[in-house]
């Protein structure tokens, strides 16, 4: 089984603000992944309303859609941060368990990053409890987070998630 | 492959089957079909499956050819009948035994041997017959019982009676039979299917064995699926296909593809054939022949799945499956792209995607989809159409009709290298067959039209699915196409409208991209750089400075240079603006205070504030001015400005200057950076909600500038009640040489100031100019203090008057700067003392007592009161009672002061009003001036302390404020002992000690400070009649009224009648001048009835005529009722109405005041004579 290839990762706040968009594919236009992240929100919203209707509390949102050469998967954390990944499309079955592993890793990376108490240092006081403002405030200083995400991206390519 | 249906056979006695009766039964039976609500409890599946409806073929047993040449290819389990019926009529058991039984046996023998088939015997009886039977006493078993006994070998009852006749055809009679039929079908199906599944399982288990063939397995497994489909169990059927797909992938992974032909053997129409048709190729045969290509196999598998999905009604999943298949399998095809005709893959995806959409629409036509399902169906279709659109992108780029850059190049698969897809000669022999695409490959416009059509179709589908963001993306690509086609107007309008959709959620990267495009187009179209352009540019810069905005601008080689260019253009465009254009909250710049305390400019009026302007753009930006507004109390605003030419990237330190800054605490209100006519503005006010959340406004303190121009308001030192009120305006020039200073006063309470009547007080007064609005002082010298009194309208309704002062002044040193100073001052309008007057008339004299009490809690020091008459000559003579004490009287809230004056006047003269002059000051003022005085003395001694002067005063005043213990001592002695002043060993401490020593010495309050004055007009009171009543006890009834001095000789006893004389002396001295002519008034006296003390005998009450200076007398007799010191009864004297004179319909009573001459007299009344016994001890008898 060919290893999964992670083309891009996007973290989107509960208010649909982008938190971080990273693409790993070489020589590709970033715009594409920004578009993917943005359009995925529509699909995620559909899934969320479906999940609400069925009272599901599943984080993993499965395949959102495929686009030419990428398959886009979604994940929503319990605090409604959306994680979107674009996997290089392969003509083989992608097991949900593998994708979920990637998502869990990304989620963990995100949690570690957000747990940084100094993030709130520059956040305006009135938005102290508002997740999004904290994220905005931390924006641009996400170096560690970015590095973690990059590491995950690399790891996915190398390990290829056991067959 | 057409769907297989369940077959049920029937059989019966040949004679019976040929009757009309049978035909009727058959028709009726057929009308019961299809069967409804079957519930299949399978042994291999744990859940109960329900079949809503099941079509059944009812055929005669004979028509089925029993022993067909058994095909090796497994068919569905429904190929063979599942249930065999034997239907007969037999009315009596004898006939049954002789004929029918035999026939039944034959049939049963043939049927029951068959594998996986059920049988059922149906005994038809007429309704009347069964009734007849019921009536008989049944000795014998009925036919049915016999049948049962003969054929029911196991526990299962396979015999059923049908009570039926043509005229009584109703569904209930069928219920029993139908139930049995259902049972039979399900049981047979279950058995057959279980067996088949066993086979599949066995086959699957042998997968690793040599000789196992996937195709064979596939056919076997598919037969299970087909069987399930035939039973209308689509989900289960679909599951079979999913399992097949999984197995296929497993096989694929094991690289065990020997059963397949090539990956693909492209047929001429492969690329344009409808994807979901399973009849376009003989797929099953190909599979059986082991020659099917993977391509065909996958297509077949997908088509079968989709058909089942369409039967289930899951259109969304159908489309999704198709699109996912198209994308994934295309990747596999890419690997062998060289062997395929040019653009085969693109054409295949394009045609397939669109054909799936069409097919799905066709299938969905019969379905009733609810709103949510319809939306997701549309979304899935949209994805398919978009997928087709991507192919157009690829084709367009390959043919060169579209540029190889985003957003078109987004569709290019990542594996596709830079190498252009030039169709080489070798492959060109075979070409794609989709006519649309062929046309598009030839003709640029055809491609564009197709592109637009397909995109619009996708947009429509997305829009109806509620996928706004997808639609936006496609709009973006349409705009890009417009750009490429040179339709700048269209593109520009799209690109300028799109960012608004991306910005609200902070998708600045996409927003910046769109804006960047818009700017570029603007440039390319050479449109004028108008206001709109500026807005686009500003939005772009905003997106640019925000973190992610930069990410997508890879196309700009040197973004800094690019932005620099934009900034320069911005400046130019801003100059062209016809009006000032504010732009709020642009993030490219931010302005923060470096310090929260402003500094005084020292050399001139005004203060300086240091700020940092952060420029987040990577280039220098030229600006004109930086402005900062602070908000003070009552919406007062002061503005700090600084001219600046440019802002370098990063922090810029600037010092802003405000020429007129009243001291106080301000909050940061707004900031503004101006470049030409473009104004970047930021508001910094906080809403109450933010403040509550702890987000406090930024405060700025502006210190007091003692040398700056200042305006104070004072009460005038002399207040004369009854004349127009004035307020003193004290303008101190401070360090300034003032050319003009226009003072404007405004009172919110509506008090009007009459500037025209302004008087300048003091010497060396500068010239003033007045108009209705303001008073302007001209040429005020440095350090000069000008005092002007401005009259104002009545403000007695208020204790304090709040006045907003606006001073606009221009100094001679800086004639260009027009400083505006806004101040808010409060000046007291009420008097600190309240005055009460009491008048006492005694004949020709009048005693007037003034009671002064403070109106506040403050102590008032009164130096002197004087009652002044206008002139000595008007006949009023005022004498001060009590030699006035030299010291000052202190009025406290608990202790008012009384001042008494005696007034003598000449009768009958018009009397001018008097004036009470009070010279006073508040204790606080006095003490403050005392301290100032003392400090001044110290400073004169040691001039080095000059700069500490204010400090010392403040410190002492503060100490006095904290403790009131000094007040009493000061009031008595004039020594001021300031409590609780801690002195250090420095200069200040030394100075303070010296001042304290000075204050500690006795000092007359008259020797320092200023005194205020109030002049209060007082009228001379008037009274028609002043009467003096007297009750005099006479020595004997005959003695006439005696003089007071005569000593009474006889003692008075209780119960003894006493002669008394009542005298009333009347005077008209204080009568009002207009009534001087009146000679007499009618009056009445009334002796008070003190029934406890006195019995009054005689004329207790009487009327008399009073004339000026006359005395009326009346004798009375008094009897004292008890002994003791008793006051005489009072005499009330009242004037009676003047007869015949009426005013306002009521009689006129002249004013009259009476005083009791004997009011203080008491008489000693002795007890009446009698005996009293006293015991007096005469000593003690010792012997007794």
From TrEMBL, chain A:
InterPro entries: Longin-like_dom_sf, Sedlin, TRAPPC2L
Highest taxon of the lineage: Eukaryota
Pfam families: Sedlin_N (PF04628)
One GO term describing the cellular component: cytoplasm
GO biological process: endoplasmic reticulum to Golgi vesicle-mediated transport
Family listed: Belongs to the TRAPP small subunits family. Sedlin subfamily.
Protein name as catalogued: Trafficking protein particle complex subunit 2-like protein
Lineage, opening ranks: Eukaryota, Fungi, Dikarya, Basidiomycota, Agaricomycotina
TrEMBL record, chain B:
UniProtKB keywords: Golgi apparatus, Transport
Entry keyword Transport: yes
GO terms for cellular component: cytosol; TRAPPII protein complex
TRAPPC10/Trs130 C-terminal domain sequence ranges: 1017-1166
DUF7077 domain sequence ranges: 706-814
Protein's cellular compartments: Golgi apparatus
Domain of life: Eukaryota
Keyword Transport: yes
GO aspect biological process, one term: intra-Golgi vesicle-mediated transport
Domain TRAPPC10/Trs130 N-terminal: 1-319
Record-given protein name: Trafficking protein particle complex subunit 10
Lineage: Eukaryota, Fungi, Dikarya, Basidiomycota, Agaricomycotina
């Amino acid at each position: 089984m060919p290893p999964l290839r992670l083309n891009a990762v996007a973290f989107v706040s509960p208010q649909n603000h982008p938190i971080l968009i990273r693409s790993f594919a070489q020589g590709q236009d970033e715009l594409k992944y920004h578009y993917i992240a943005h359009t995925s929100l529509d699909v995620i919203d559909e899934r969320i309303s479906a999940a609400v209707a069925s009272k599901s509390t599943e984080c993993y949102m499965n395949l959102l859609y495929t686009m030419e050469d990428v398959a886009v998967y979604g994940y929503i954390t319990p605090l409604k941060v959306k994680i979107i990944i674009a996997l290089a499309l392969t003509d083989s079955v992608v097991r949900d368990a593998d994708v979920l592993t990637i998502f869990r890793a990304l989620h963990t990376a995100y949690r570690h990053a957000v747990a940084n108490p100094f993030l709130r240092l520059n956040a305006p006081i009135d938005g102290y409890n508002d997740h999004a403002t904290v994220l905005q405030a931390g924006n641009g200083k996400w170096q560690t987070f970015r590095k973690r995400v990059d590491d995950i991206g690399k790891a996915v390519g190398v390990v290829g998630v056991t067959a | 492959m057409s769907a297989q249906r369940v077959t049920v056979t029937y059989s019966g006695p040949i004679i019976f089957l040929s009757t009309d009766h049978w035909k009727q039964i058959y028709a009726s039976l057929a009308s019961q079909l299809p069967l409804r609500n079957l519930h299949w409890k399978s042994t291999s599946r744990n859940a109960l499956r329900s079949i809503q409806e099941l079509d059944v073929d009812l055929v005669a047993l004979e028509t089925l050819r029993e022993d067909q040449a058994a095909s090796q290819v497994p068919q569905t389990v429904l190929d063979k009948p599942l249930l065999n019926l034997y239907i007969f009529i037999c009315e009596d058991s004898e006939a049954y035994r002789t004929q029918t039984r035999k026939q039944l046996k034959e049939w049963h023998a043939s049927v029951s041997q068959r594998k996986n088939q059920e049988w059922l015997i149906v005994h038809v009886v007429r309704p009347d017959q069964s009734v007849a039977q019921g009536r008989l006493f049944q000795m014998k078993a009925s036919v049915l019982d016999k049948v049962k006994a003969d054929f029911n070998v196991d526990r299962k009852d396979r015999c059923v009676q049908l009570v039926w006749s043509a005229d009584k055809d109703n569904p209930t009679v069928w219920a029993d039979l139908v139930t049995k039929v259902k049972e039979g079908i399900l049981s047979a199906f279950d058995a057959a299917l279980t067996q088949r599944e066993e086979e599949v399982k066995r086959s699957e288990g042998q997968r690793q064995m040599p000789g196992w063939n996937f195709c064979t397995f596939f056919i076997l497994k598919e037969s299970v699926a087909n069987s399930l489909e035939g039973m209308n169990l689509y989900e289960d059927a679909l599951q079979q296909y999913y399992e097949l797909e999984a197995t296929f992938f497993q096989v694929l992974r094991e690289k065990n593809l020997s059963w397949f032909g090539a990956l693909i053997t492209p047929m001429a129409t492969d690329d344009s054939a409808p994807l979901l048709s399973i009849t376009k190729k003989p797929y099953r045969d190909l599979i059986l022949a082991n020659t099917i290509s993977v391509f065909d196999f996958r297509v077949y598998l997908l088509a079968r799945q989709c058909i089942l999905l369409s039967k289930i009604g899951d259109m969304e999943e159908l489309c999704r499956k198709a699109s996912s298949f198209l994308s994934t399998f295309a990747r596999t095809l890419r690997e062998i792209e060289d062997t395929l005709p040019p653009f085969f893959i693109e054409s295949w995806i394009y045609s397939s995607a669109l054909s799936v959409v069409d097919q799905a629409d066709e299938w969905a036509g019969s379905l009733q989809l609810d709103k949510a399902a319809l939306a997701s169906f549309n979304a899935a279709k949209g994805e398919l159409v978009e997928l087709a659109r991507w192919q157009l992108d690829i084709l367009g780029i390959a043919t060169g009709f579209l540029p190889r850059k985003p957003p078109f190049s987004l569709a290019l698969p990542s594996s596709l290298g830079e190498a252009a897809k030039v169709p080489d000669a070798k492959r060109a022999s075979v070409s794609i067959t989709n006519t649309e695409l062929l046309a598009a490959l030839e003709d640029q416009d055809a491609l564009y039209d197709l592109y637009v059509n397909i995109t619009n179709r996708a947009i429509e589908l997305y829009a109806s699915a509620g996928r706004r963001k997808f639609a936006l993306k496609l709009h973006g690509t349409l705009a890009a196409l417009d750009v490429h086609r040179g339709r700048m107007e269209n593109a520009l309008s799209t690109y300028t409208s799109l960012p608004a959709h991306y910005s609200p959620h902070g998708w600045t990267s996409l927003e910046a991209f769109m804006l960047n495009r818009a700017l570029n187009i603007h440039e390319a179209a050479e449109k004028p750089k108008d206001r709109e352009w500026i807005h686009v540019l500003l939005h772009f810069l905003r997106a640019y400075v925000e973190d992610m905005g930069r990410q997508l601008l890879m196309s700009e080689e040197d973004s800094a240079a690019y932005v620099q260019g934009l900034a320069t253009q911005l400046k130019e465009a801003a100059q062209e603006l016809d009006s000032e254009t504010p732009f709020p909250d642009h993030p490219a710049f931010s302005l923060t205070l470096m310090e929260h305390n402003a500094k005084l400019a020292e050399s001139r009026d005004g203060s300086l504030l240091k700020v940092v302007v952060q420029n987040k753009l990577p280039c220098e930006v030229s600006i004109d001015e930086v402005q900062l507004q602070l908000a003070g109390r009552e919406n007062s605003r002061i503005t700090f400005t600084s001219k600046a030419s440019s802002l370098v990237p990063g922090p810029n330190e600037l010092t802003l200057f405000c020429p007129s800054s009243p001291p106080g605490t301000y909050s940061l209100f707004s900031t503004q950076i101006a470049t030409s006519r473009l104004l970047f503005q930021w508001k910094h006010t906080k809403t109450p909600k933010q403040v509550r959340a702890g987000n406090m406004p930024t405060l700025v303190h502006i210190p007091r500038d003692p040398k700056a121009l200042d305006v104070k308001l004072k009460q005038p030192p002399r207040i004369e009640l009854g004349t127009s009120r004035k307020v003193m305006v004290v303008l101190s020039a401070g360090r300034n040489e003032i050319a003009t200073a226009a003072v404007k006063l405004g009172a919110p309470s509506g008090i009007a100031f009459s500037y025209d009547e302004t008087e300048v007080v003091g010497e060396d007064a500068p010239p003033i100019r007045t108009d209705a609005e303001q008073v302007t002082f001209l040429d005020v010298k440095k350090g000069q203090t000008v005092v002007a009194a401005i009259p104002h309208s009545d403000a007695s309704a208020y204790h304090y008057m709040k006045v907003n002062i606006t001073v606009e002044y221009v100094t001679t040193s800086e004639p260009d700067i027009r400083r505006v100073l806004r101040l808010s001052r409060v000046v007291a309008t009420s008097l600190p003392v309240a005055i009460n007057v009491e008048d006492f008339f005694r004949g020709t004299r009048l005693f007037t007592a003034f009671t002064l009490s403070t109106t506040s809690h403050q102590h008032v020091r009164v130096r002197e009161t004087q009652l002044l008459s206008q002139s000595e000559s008007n006949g009023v003579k005022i004498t001060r009672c009590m030699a006035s004490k030299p010291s000052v009287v202190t009025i406290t809230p608990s202790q008012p002061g009384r001042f008494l004056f005696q007034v003598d006047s000449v009768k009958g003269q018009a009397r001018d009003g008097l004036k009470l002059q009070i010279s006073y000051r508040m204790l606080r003022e006095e003490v403050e001036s005392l301290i100032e005085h003392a400090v001044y003395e110290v400073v004169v001694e040691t001039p080095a302390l000059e700069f500490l002067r204010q400090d010392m005063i403040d410190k002492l005043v503060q100490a006095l404020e904290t403790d009131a213990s000094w007040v009493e001592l000061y009031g008595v002695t004039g020594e001021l002992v300031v409590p609780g002043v801690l002195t250090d060993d420095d200069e200040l401490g030394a100075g303070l000690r010296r001042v304290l020593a000075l204050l500690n010495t006795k000092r007359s309050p008259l020797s320092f400070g200023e005194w205020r004055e109030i002049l209060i007009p007082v009228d001379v009171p008037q009274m028609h009649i002043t009467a003096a009543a007297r009750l005099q006890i006479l020595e004997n009834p005959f003695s006439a009224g005696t003089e007071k001095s005569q000593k009474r000789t006889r003692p008075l006893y209780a119960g003894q009648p006493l002669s008394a004389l009542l005298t009333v002396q009347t005077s008209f001295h204080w009568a009002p001048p207009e009534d001087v002519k009146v000679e007499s008034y009618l009056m009445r006296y009334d002796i008070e009835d003190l029934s406890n003390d006195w019995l009054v005998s005689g004329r207790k009450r009487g009327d008399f005529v009073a004339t000026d200076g006359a005395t009326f007398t009346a004798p009375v007799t008094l009897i004292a009722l008890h002994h003791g010191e008793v006051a005489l009864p009072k005499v009330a004297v009242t004037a009676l109405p003047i007869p015949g004179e009426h005013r306002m319909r009521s009689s006129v009573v002249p004013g009259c005041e009476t005083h009791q001459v004997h009011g203080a007299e008491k008489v000693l009344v002795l007890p009446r004579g009698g005996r009293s016994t006293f015991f007096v001890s005469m000593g003690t008898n010792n012997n007794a």
